[in-house]
What we know:
The chain is mostly beta strands. It has strands spanning 23-26, 35-42, 48-51, 54-57, 70-76.
Amino acid sequence: MALNVWTQRSGYSIGSFQEHATIDIQLPVSNDAGVTYTVISGALPGGLRISGNRIIGTPYEVSRTTSYTFCIRASVS
């Protein structure tokens, strides 16, 4: 059974992040009681992690502008 919690389509950009600035971004979801989120492909920028339905942390410094692509799966036990 597929979960229908995402409010944005695949390919949605969560934006740009400034190095060393604390990030706290709500995932584009709704009706997600009991749902867990996991990065299943790619990677979040270094220093960021998923906590509940948010991406939080402080991005590490990088030597040049870098793009990150990742896929997050929503699942229920």
